[in-house]
Write a structure and sequence with these properties.
By secondary structure, the protein is α/β, with parallel strands linked by helices. The protein has a single domain, classed as Rossmann fold (3-Layer(aba) Sandwich), CATH 3.40.50.300. Helix content is about 45%, strand content about 15%. A five-stranded parallel beta sheet has the order 2-3-1-4-8, sandwiched between helices. A three-stranded antiparallel beta sheet has the order 6-5-7. The chain is globular. Adenosine monophosphate binds next to helix 2 and helix 3. The site of adenosine-5'-diphosphate (ADP) has 22 residues, from helix 1, helix 6, strand 6 and helix 9.
């Protein structure tokens, strides 16, 4: 399955991505994760991306599009992928259409996770991620069994440097200005399904499964 996850920062994209790739044939591609890996490894791309990410701004389209285009050409994603955090601008969506055309691929569904704006800051600020395996927790809504330690691999949990209130507020504004127009873009192509993200994590996943149907 070829899928896109759409939604504001803190909507639950990463959380649901983990569930979806477990149940369907799709490789998780998170542009945010790719940038964070590059920052950790101190690559040129990481250095450039960090300047924007620390301010809550989008990394320029030309840096992101090339990265995703290269990734989609790799063999492991030919039967399915789940794009998480890409596209984020209409420009990126148009570039993705071109890449897919050249690969003879077609998006099956765009899963749009909708969450009340008032809940987003608390979700992002309380997010904790495992340094080792990337599993996502929340200090109140989805806590690990032992504070600061991953349930899956016992790795150490950390807070993203952009998950602080001021930067999260900026990221939400950037989403409203630059990414929300994609809802219209994909409504026109008829591939979008909107999911109520203001429910328990398991209920959100149930609704996603209903929208996707059984594995094809
Ligand atoms: P995104 O990838 O869209 O930025 P995440 O999946 O990382 O969002 O989720 C943001 C935070 O909210 C995480 O701490 C996660 O545990 C928590 N979270 C995700 N889904 C829900 C939900 N349905 N209810 C409450 N908290 C949630
Ligand atoms: P995320 O992990 O999806 O929350 O993304 C974290 C940050 O990475 C964003 O605030 C942006 O600065 C950058 N980023 C991730 N994906 C994109 C994208 N498709 N376009 C531009 N910037 C991105």
């Amino acid at each position: 399955m070829k899928l896109i996850l759409l939604g504001p920062p803190g909507a639950g994209k990463g959380t649901q991505a983990a569930n979806i790739v477990n149940a369907y044939e799709a490789v998780h591609i998170s542009t945010g994760d790719i940038f964070r890996k590059n920052i950790k490894e101190n690559t040129d791309l990481g250095k450039k991306a960090k300047e924007y990410m620390d301010k809550g701004l989008l990394v320029p389209d030309e840096l992101v599009v090339e990265l995703v285009a290269d990734r989609l050409e790799q063999d492991d994603v030919k039967d399915g992928f789940l794009l998480d955090g890409f596209p984020r601008t209409v420009n990126q969506a148009q570039a993705l259409d071109k890449v897919l055309e050249s690969l003879n691929g077609k998006i099956y569904k765009v899963i749009n996770i909708q969450v009340d704006k008032n809940n987003l800051v608390e979700r992002a600020v309380g997010r904790r991620i495992c340094k080792k395996c990337g599993a996502t927790y929340h200090i109140s809504f989805n806590p690990s069994k032992s504070e600061g330690i991953c349930d899956v691999c016992e790795g150490e949990l950390y807070q993203r440097t952009d998950d602080v209130e001021e930067t999260v507020a900026k990221r939400i504004q950037v989403y409203l200005d630059e990414t929300q127009p994609l809802i219209d873009y994909y409504t026109k192509s008829g591939t979008i399904v909107t999911i109520n993200g203001d429910q328990d994590i398991s209920k959100v996943f149930n609704d996603i499964k209903l929208a996707l149907g059984s594995e094809d």
